[in-house]
Amino acid sequence: MGKYGQIAIEAARLAQKTKDPDEAWEVVSSKIFGKGTPSQLKGCPKSTFLGLCSEGKLKEIPAGNYTKSKKNKIYGLKALELLSKNTSFLDPNELWNKVLRAAGEDVTKQHNEQMDVVLELYKNNLLII
Q: CA 100, CA 43: separation in Å to the nearest integer?
């Protein structure tokens, strides 16, 4: 499991207690990477996590307005939709390519840890499908 997947799991579990997914991501990512580091501030994985939270897709976390990111939110939701239909997409690159096709985007675009977030939440039964 990559570090962003680890952050997603720990942040989801913390947010289930605090009901504040943004703060949970900040706390956990700061602990893992160090506060203010480029890896801690990386937006794509965080926005994907918060996008799923915004739509009420994480267990025990109320839907809300947690992110302004539209693209990463869409990527996370498309990945969840695909996983709900076929659980064999457990490779981040394969899932990413399917997400891009479903979103009508250029399949040569590289993922930026968004699929690691979704897949680890999925594997740990933290998502509402």
A: 18
Q: Decide: helix, strand or coil at residue 48.
A: helix
Alpha carbons 107 and 48: distance in angstroms, whole number: 18
- Single out the residue of 13, 6, 58 nearest to residue 29, CA to CA: 6
Q: 48: which residues sit within 8 A by CB, 6+ positions away?
A: 69, 72, 73, 75, 76, 114, 117, 118
Please tell me the chain's helix, strand, coil percentages from 3-state DSSP, rounded to the nearest 5: 65, 0, 35
Look up residue 30 and give its two tokens.
Answer: 């700061």
Q: Once rounded to an integer, what is the mean pLDDT over residues 45-66?
A: 97
Q: Who contacts 31 (Cβ-Cβ below 8 Å, separation ≥6)? A: none
pTM: 0.95
Cα 121 to Cα 5: distance, rounded to the nearest angstrom:
7
